[in-house]
TrEMBL record, chain A:
<dbReference type="Pfam" id="PF00364">
    <property type="entry name" value="Biotin_lipoyl"/>
</dbReference>
<dbReference type="InterPro" id="IPR003016">
    <property type="entry name" value="2-oxoA_DH_lipoyl-BS"/>
</dbReference>
<feature type="domain" description="Lipoyl-binding">
    <location>
        <begin position="2"/>
        <end position="77"/>
    </location>
</feature>
<dbReference type="GO" id="GO:0045254">
    <property type="term" value="C:pyruvate dehydrogenase complex"/>
</dbReference>
<keyword id="KW-0450">Lipoyl</keyword>
<dbReference type="GO" id="GO:0006086">
    <property type="term" value="P:pyruvate decarboxylation to acetyl-CoA"/>
</dbReference>
<protein>
    <recommendedName>
        <fullName>Lipoyl-binding domain-containing protein</fullName>
    </recommendedName>
</protein>
<dbReference type="InterPro" id="IPR045257">
    <property type="entry name" value="E2/Pdx1"/>
</dbReference>
<dbReference type="InterPro" id="IPR000089">
    <property type="entry name" value="Biotin_lipoyl"/>
</dbReference>
From TrEMBL, chain B:
<dbReference type="InterPro" id="IPR004143">
    <property type="entry name" value="BPL_LPL_catalytic"/>
</dbReference>
<dbReference type="InterPro" id="IPR019491">
    <property type="entry name" value="Lipoate_protein_ligase_C"/>
</dbReference>
<dbReference type="GO" id="GO:0009249">
    <property type="term" value="P:protein lipoylation"/>
</dbReference>
<dbReference type="GO" id="GO:0017118">
    <property type="term" value="F:lipoyltransferase activity"/>
</dbReference>
<dbReference type="InterPro" id="IPR004562">
    <property type="entry name" value="LipoylTrfase_LipoateP_Ligase"/>
</dbReference>
<feature type="domain" description="BPL/LPL catalytic">
    <location>
        <begin position="26"/>
        <end position="202"/>
    </location>
</feature>
<keyword id="KW-0436">Ligase</keyword>
<comment type="pathway">
    <text>Protein modification; protein lipoylation via exogenous pathway; protein N(6)-(lipoyl)lysine from lipoate: step 2/2.</text>
</comment>
<dbReference type="Pfam" id="PF21948">
    <property type="entry name" value="LplA-B_cat"/>
</dbReference>
Length: 79, 328
């Protein structure tokens, strides 16, 4: 089954974040709690963890792009 | 709260100390550090060194370059400034600056320095910035660090962070230029040592259950490894930006107009085009060939430019002139 990963709200002040970098690539196994990617907002670097166990299927946002709360960021294939 | 005395001005050690405390030591209580640096420029995590730094000035003045794990803009620090750090386990995923900023603002106000927190989480006095803060969240811990200008060399700050690009294209976080002031102009009666001691005393006075922790030889050995692997790593410092497209142009009196168009990928020069109305038989292809594929930094480019211009001089323009154009 395919699960969608959406951008969580990280800042009380802003809903638009700078997408910093991917820490998992398509095909990588991910476990709950693994860091998937990193974003910057309001001078803060935040790590976003996986809520699923599975395999990262697709990255929907590129490094350096701007991303909004709720945007589809990735898909994870879970068993 | 745990207070850890920091007795080195080495930025690589001090950033490694923060990282070590958050990633490996992981005290359950908040940690407070107060420290300083030798002349240093600190890039935010997702900033482009070529967009923010006058690398030729920095080379000439032996200024350290480091990339933070936190976000935000580039700052310049030296022995005339102080850095404060709070490290603690996360209580929530949501970002919060207020508690940290307020602790410092309250201490400063008790020292008759009328600091006000702004919406950008800076501290200002009379609308001039004296302090900026940034954070990173790592593995369930928050590292909040900030700078305080006490009697920093503001001229050197300006020169190190002033760079002229005719054109610049890269995906990065850009710095915001703000008007700054040194705290010593408000409290000229204080020496650096007075200021640091007073600030430390006022911050720690707000804390219950304070204890001091001295770093052990085991701690210091790990910090040394982290400093070398992470913060002194030139690939992390200079190779972090995926692609930068740059144009640089200058008219040299007695030499003519020189224009460079170049592309740098992860710190490596991948395209170079030289144009202008200078007088030289320099072979554009050979110049590009000698530089492409190498790290695009003054210390790496300088010997090659010197060698190339020895063979094919440009009338009225030296290798150092070209270096200044490329990196200033």
């Amino acid at each position: 089954m395919l699960k969608e990963v959406h951008m969580p709200k990280l800042s009380p002040k802003s809903d638009e974040y700078f997408f910093g970098s991917w820490l998992k690539e398509p095909g990588d196994t991910v476990k709950t709690g693994d860091i998937l990617f990193e974003v910057e907002t309001d001078k803060v670097i935040s790590e976003v963890q996986s809520q699923e166990d599975g395999v990262l299927k697709e990255q929907k946002v590129a490094e350096g792009d701007s991303t909004k709360v709720g945007d589809l960021v990735a898909t994870i294939e879970v068993n | 709260m745990i207070y850890i005395p920091v007795d080195t001005l080495d930025i690589y050690h001090n950033f490694a100390l923060e990282y070590y405390l958050a990633s490996e030591k992981r005290f359950s209580e908040p940690v407070f550090l107060l420290w300083s640096t030798t002349p240093t420029v600190m890039l935010g995590k997702y900033q482009d060194a070529l967009a923010e730094l006058n690398l030729e000035y920095i080379r000439q003045h032996h200024i350290n370059v480091v990339r933070r794990y936190s976000g935000g803009g580039t700052i310049y620090t030296d022995e005339g400034g102080y850095q404060f750090t709070f490290i603690q386990p996360d209580t929530q995923q949501m970002i919060d600056f207020k508690a940290y900023i307020n602790t410092i603002a309250t201490a400063l106000n008790q020292m008759q320095i009328p600091a006000i927190a702004t919406s950008r989480n800076d501290l200002t006095v009379n609308d001039r910035k004296i302090s900026g803060s940034a954070q990173y969240k790592h593995n369930g811990f928050t590292v909040h660090h900030g700078s305080l200008l006490f009697n920093t060399n503001l001229e050197q700050m300006y020169d190190a962070l002033h760079v002229d690009n005719l054109k610049l294209r890269s995906k990065h976080i850009a710095s915001i230029l703000e008007r700054t002031i040194n705290i010593q102009t408000i409290r000229p009666d204080l020496t650096n040592q007075d200021f640091a001691a007073d600030l430390q005393q006022h911050v720690l006075a707000t804390v219950t259950n304070l204890r001091t922790y001295q770093l052990t030889p085991t701690d210091l050995a790990r910090i040394k490894v982290i400093a070398k692997d992470k913060f002194q790593n030139s690939q992390f410092i200079y190779g972090h930006t995926p692609t930068t497209e740059l144009s640089k142009k200058h008219y040299f009196k007695g030499g003519g107009l020189v224009k460079f168009d170049l592309t740098v990928k992860h710190g490596i020069l991948t395209e170079l085009h030289l144009s202008g109305d200078f007088f030289s038989s320099i072979d554009q292809y050979l110049l590009a060939k000698s530089l492409l594929g190498r790290p695009f930094r003054p210390d790496q480019v300088r010997p090659i430019l010197i060698q190339q211009l020895q063979q094919q001089p440009i009338l009225g323009i030296s290798a150092d002139d070209l270096l200044a154009l490329l990196f200033s």
